[in-house]
Amino acid sequence: MTRKIALGSAPLQEPREPTTEDAADTNSGDRRPLADRVLALLDAVAGAGQPMAVKDIAEKLALPKPTAHRLIAMLEERGFLARPFDGRLVTVGPKLRTLALNTLRSSLAQAPSHARLRALSLELGETCNIGVLEGGDVVYLDRVEVENWPLRLEFGVGSRVPLHCTAMGKLFLAFLPELPRRRLLDCLPLPRMSAATLCDPALFRAELERIAACGHSLDDEEYMPGVFCAAVPIRDGAGRMVAALAVQAPKVRLSRESVADRLPVLHRAASDMAHALGIDAAPAEPALSL
User: 167-206 burial, b for 16+ CB within 10 Å, e for fewer?
Assistant: First the structure.
């Protein structure tokens, strides 16, 4: 009888006898260690930016298809991968998203990136935030609040805000790949948070198209009355949005008319932030000779 050893949130089995599937791996010439194949698979799926078919994963990593299915099933069982739609495509799972979130949060806690956010807040004279997409919300990863902020807002690190009525949330939706965006929009509720919230699906989609075209997003009292926000993307070396950088201020100090001269400062800071976080270099392709 096979005895299971508890490790983390999922059991791992003790070493087993070689199977015909293992023989297929050997016959294919793939002698890479299991850990290398698993890491290459996770890197490929996470870096794709959209769900991948198993056959595409197998081809990209030069894996026998049975091996790809077996590794994906193992990682899916442990929550690192998931099949979110019709079961045919593979994407990142909740455990991998949490790992990425914790990694980015740790990076933001380091002096260079937080110092850059503080410098931006001082330059603009307003509160500045960094957020990432997590499930159906935006999660605040870092925040520097100005002393003259007249409103008491409970937005600390780890706070979650909705996608449809915040500048950072709309920005993420606008820059999602087409298939995930369409599927998310099909099920995303648009509750009214204020009198200015866009609740009409057609108007909301038009707003996302405008954001994708201009490269920034605005929240003009759509989430909270009296609060204006502008957000720009923080991108990796491949041009993919990995986080959002935003400035937040009372409407009396920041508006659609006055935000224009702040946007170049935000874009420049976003580029500096990517450099501080070490994500501005183009990611390397997974090595097939691991």
Answer: bbbbbbbbbbeeebbeebbeebebeebeeebbeeeeebbe
Q: Rounded to 5 degrees, what angle do the CA atoms 213, 249, 247 make?
A: 45
Angle at 207 between CA 239 and CA 231, to 5 degrees: 50
Q: How far apart are the first and last CA of the chain?
A: 34
Q: Is 66 exposed, middle or buried (0-12, 13-18, 19+ CB in 10 A)?
A: middle
The CA–CA distances, whole Å, from 273 to 29, 157, 177, 254 equal 42, 17, 23, 23
The one-letter code for the residue type at 283 is P
Strand (E) positions, the chain? 4-7, 10-13, 52-53, 81-82, 89-92, 127-134, 137-144, 160-162, 217-220, 227-235, 241-250
Distance CA 4, CA 225 (A): 55
In this prediction the pTM is 0.68
Q: Which one-letter DSSP state was computed for residue 236?
A: -
Give, for all 290 residues of the chain, the pLDDT tens digit. 444 333 334 444 433 433 444 444 544 556 788 889 999 998 888 878 778 899 999 999 999 999 999 999 999 989 888 887 667 888 888 888 777 777 766 666 565 778 889 999 999 999 999 998 887 889 888 888 887 665 555 566 668 899 999 999 999 999 988 888 888 888 899 999 999 999 999 999 999 999 999 999 999 999 999 999 999 999 988 888 989 999 999 999 999 999 999 999 999 999 988 887 777 654 444 333 22
